[in-house]
Structure formats: C-alpha cells, structure tokens
Amino acid sequence: MTEQLDNIPSAPFLPAGRQLRAAREACGLSIDDVAGQLKLAHRQIEALESEAFDELPSNLFVRGFVRNYARLVKIDAAPLLEYLAGVLPSEQVAETVLSTYPQVEPSSPSLGGEKSSFPLIVIMALIGIFLGVTAVYWYLQQPSNPDIALPDMPNPVALEASAASQLLVNDNSNASVSASEVVSSGVQALPASMPGVALVSPAASSASSIIVASSVAQGALEISVLTESDSWVQILDSRGNKVLSEIIRPGYERKVAGVPPFAVKIGNAPKTKLTLQGRPVDLSSYLKPGSDVVNMELK
C-alpha cells in the first residue's frame, strides 16, 4: 500500500451540498440522472445541492436523501450526516400535528354520561403518522442500485501507440520514395550480399526507439496535486487501491506515491495542476468540450 505524503494540514470540511455536487460532476452525471436513480424530482436534487432544506420534507427525509445520494456517487455519508445534524432545524412532530387542530374547550359530560371522543381521534392520528414515517424511513434505507457505468474515456496510451504506428507508416513511405529516386538517378546501391555490411531500415530503428521509450520502470512514482479552486480528485494505483480521494481546497498541495499506471479522475481540471515525478501533466488535452471533468490513465 502506498504512503500519502501530506505537506500541509487537511482543509476545512466543505458543506454537504457542495460535496455532493462536486462528486456528481466528477462521475459525469447530470441532475436528471441522479433524480432518476434516486426516484426524486429535479427540484429536490437542486435543493439538496444548494442546501435549501426548507424546500424539502422533514429532517428524516433529508437525511435519507443525502445518505442515498452519497451512496450513488460513492462517497462516505457519515461526515455528511454529521454536518446535517448541526445545520438542520429542530422539529417537534407531535406539536406540529396538534397545532393543526383547533383548540377545543373541555366538554361537559352529556346526559348519558358519555365523554367526547376527540382526544382518542388525535391519538390514533398521531400513531398513524408515526407508522407512516417509520415505513418511509425503512424504504429509504434500502439499496437503490446506484452502480452506474461511468462514461468511457479514450486510453491515452492507445492514442499514442496509434500515432506512433502512423508515423512508422509515413517513414516507410518516405524510405520507399527515397530508394526509388536513388535507383532512377543512376546511383549504384550496395549489394545485399556484400560481406561485413548490415542494412538497417529507418522504420525499424524508429520502432525500436518507440518501444524502448514507451517502457516504464516498475517502481513507485510521486504525484503532486495543487488547485486554484475547489476540485475533487481521485487517484487509483495499478492494483486499484485509492491513493487519493478527496476535495482539495485552493492553495493546498497534496503529494502521494504509488505504482503506475494510475487511474486519475479530476472534477475541476482547468483549476488543477498535476505533476508526475516533478514533470507537469497537460490536463487540457484530456478535456471534452463543455466539461471540466478529466478521466485519464497516467503512467
């Protein structure tokens, strides 16, 4: 397991709504995608991310929504629920229900000695509300099958290999043209069977250089992350272990080490600087039009 190297103390805790929104954007999901998976309305997801809790049902529902949302975007729900405990307004369900009924003066016994049945109705209504809230809470605890296939990103190594193959084809074509020009100009070429002389193809030399250059030493490499704005960053090593997974605040540098290749996800790539072994990594080449999210493999 790789060791994290923290040069600067951890950043303050972010509000729950901002963490959920950043994790959703890092997963490449829209608000409608999340609403469909959690079976909620579009406006309810917006209210959660903006922490407009007065637009949502009771605190019990809000906690359930946040727990399922965190499970969907694969972040820990415990810190978010702890944060909600300090920001949600206190509720008194029984007083709220009782306040909806008009105040009734105690009635005197009727001639037949029977008392009003109104208190019994109120008690039964409270029991029914309690059972309904309990059933809804139990339903919210059930898994909602949040596993969503993230959009596939093109493999940068495969793209480089394709470009190298195209370069080799061009080199072969140029070599063929040059050989034809030499023959047509009357210059005598060396015999193939001439002893002590070995003919080396330029294309073969280029291919050998590319193969040697693409080989990576199997050792631990250091990655440094520095942001200019809040950015969610996740880095997995070659074994799939999480080397880094958190929201990095501006001005806080995070350094980690691991065995490549690394699977890197960045939620705010334009405001993030990434270096590998002290060499800057150009994140702009991995951005898609209209998106700030980067999914890449780093070797």
From TrEMBL:
What CDD domains does its record include?
HTH_XRE (cd00093)
Cytoskeleton protein RodZ-like C-terminal domain: from which residue to which, for each copy?
A: 228-295
Lineage, top-rank taxon, reads Bacteria
Q: In this record, what's one Pfam family?
A: RodZ_C
Q: Which GO terms describe its molecular function?
A: DNA binding
Query: What Gene3D superfamilies does this protein map onto?
Result: lambda repressor-like DNA-binding domains
**Membrane keyword on record:** yes
Protein name from the UniProt record? RodZ domain-containing protein
Which species? Chitinibacter mangrovi
